[in-house]
């Protein structure tokens, strides 16, 4: 009896899978990711992320997701987006996320030496308002357990 039921179940699953594979085309004719529709302007992009980080019901996971999306793009966020993200970190009371965000932003700005001082200059009022320090002010710019260079041991 059990063998009969298992054979019937196996054949039914086999038919359902085969019918599903036959109905799905092997090669799609169009890519869904690249649409040639309306392009988003820089102002709309900035407004979208500022409104995303300004939501009152945002939680830590959504902040991390938004930051990850931003850092995955080939851009450095505008200071108003950075300030909105810092305020979101303050709303969820996650200081560590704030510091990590600033560290990641600093690493992203290393391609242009003039960029990081500009970003710091622009976000400094928000940092002062929130009582947040830069990673360099906390000593995170120097490795804590780094060994001395072997070439500097004798002098």
Structure write-up:
The chain has 155 residues and is mainly alpha-helical. Helix content is 61%, strand content 0%. The protein contains 7 helices and no strands. The chain has helices at 2-23, 42-53, 60-72, 79-91, 95-108, 115-130, 135-138. The N and C termini lie far apart (86 Å).
Instruction: Give the total of beta strands.
Output: 0
N-to-C SSE string, H for helix and E for strand:
HHHHHHH
Please describe the biggest sheet, giving its number of strands, its sense, and whether it closes into a barrel. Answer: none
Mean pLDDT: 83
Radius of gyration: 26 Å
Helix content: 55-70%
Number of helices: 7
Strand content: under 5%
Coarse morphology: extended
Query: What class, by secondary structure content?
Result: mainly alpha
Distance between the termini: 86 Å
Could you name the ranges where pLDDT drops below 50 across 5 or more consecutive residues?
21-31
